[in-house]
């Protein structure tokens, strides 16, 4: 199973959601891989604790290989980083991804990631993909390569307006490139249950029939502490309310996936 977490709006929690779901997956015994496609490398730093020049080239090196390889070259390889957590590995991201993007677009390398994941499927039960906050080469590559897409939503009016366009773009991409791609649902993140505006916005989305998942991730300082410690919540504080919400969300997705 390959799951991409994507939204074109920044600050909605893509990396936090991708990393914590991957960590729960690994903690429950699934051999899990997270691929970081964002040049900001937030997921990489979160799960490895590495920064700057200490971060391996990872996915950038894979894409560099694809630029120099010909039609009869051997398969491009990717370095996989073993995190301190059992069953959880990462393909790291670096800032070089930004420089590589126009070259990859010019050479039409949009299907390279899908071919890589075809090879990695034998080694991993679950693959999570974190994306940049833009429908660029890397995000499109991920949507072409994935089976499922989760859309983080932070109950902001700007996020709501962007949501409709995003769903339409995913549907168009599905028709043109990946008919097997399924929108698993909208993940409500940083939810403040006692505030009236987020609840009102959520009710309106549900009334419109949008696929809002029934597990809402709370707003909590514990997430920032988790980032700072480079410890996913399941390892930082397993019994915390937000941690348990991630476990509930993960198990909900697993049950739904098993019924497909």
List keywords for this structure.
260 residues, alpha/beta, Rossmann fold, seven-stranded mixed beta sheet, 11 helices, 7 strands, 48% helix, globular
Uncertain residue segments: none
Mean pLDDT: 93
**Helix count, per DSSP?**
11
CATH architecture: 3-Layer(aba) Sandwich
The level 1 CATH classification is Alpha Beta
Summed up, the domain count is 1
- Record the strand order, biggest sheet: 3-4-2-5-1-6-7
Query: What fraction strand?
Result: 5-15%
Helix content: 40-55%
What is the CATH superfamily label? P-loop containing nucleotide triphosphate hydrolases
Report how far the terminal alpha carbons are from each other: 12 Å
Number of strands: 7
Radius of gyration: 18 Å
Reading the helices and strands in chain order gives: EHEHHEEHHEHEHEHHHH
Gross morphology? globular
Report the CATH topology name.
Rossmann fold
The largest sheet, given as strand count, sense and whether it forms a barrel, is: 7 strands, mixed
Structural class: alpha/beta
């Amino acid at each position: 199973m390959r799951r991409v977490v994507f939204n074109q709006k920044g600050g909605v929690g893509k990396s936090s959601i991708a990393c914590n779901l991957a960590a729960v997956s690994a903690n429950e015994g699934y051999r899990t891989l997270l691929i970081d496609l964002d040049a900001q490398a937030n997921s990489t730093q979160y799960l490895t604790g590495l920064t700057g020049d200490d971060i391996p080239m990872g996915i950038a090196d894979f894409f560099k290989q694809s630029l120099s390889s010909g039609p009869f070259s051997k398969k491009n390889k990717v370095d996989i980083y073993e995190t301190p957590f059992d069953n959880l590995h990462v393909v790291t991201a670096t800032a070089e991804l930004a420089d590589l993007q126009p070259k990859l677009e010019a050479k039409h390398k949009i299907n390279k990631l899908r071919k890589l994941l075809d090879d990695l499927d034998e080694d991993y039960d679950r693959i999570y993909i974190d994306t940049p906050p833009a429908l660029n080469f890397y995000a499109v590559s991920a949507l072409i390569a994935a089976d499922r897409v989760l859309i983080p939503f932070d109950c902001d009016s700007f996020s709501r307006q962007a949501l409709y366009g995003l769903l339409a773009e995913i549907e168009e991409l599905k028709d043109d490139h990946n008919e097997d791609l399924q929108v698993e649902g909208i993940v409500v993140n940083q939810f403040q249950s006692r505030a009236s505006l987020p609840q009102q916005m959520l009710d309106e989305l549900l009334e419109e029939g949008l696929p809002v998942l029934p597990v809402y991730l709370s707003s909590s300082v514990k997430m920032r502490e988790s980032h700072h410690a480079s410890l996913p919540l399941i390892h930082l504080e397993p019994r915390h309310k937000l941690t348990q919400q991630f476990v509930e969300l993960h198990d909900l997705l697993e049950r739904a996936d098993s019924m497909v």
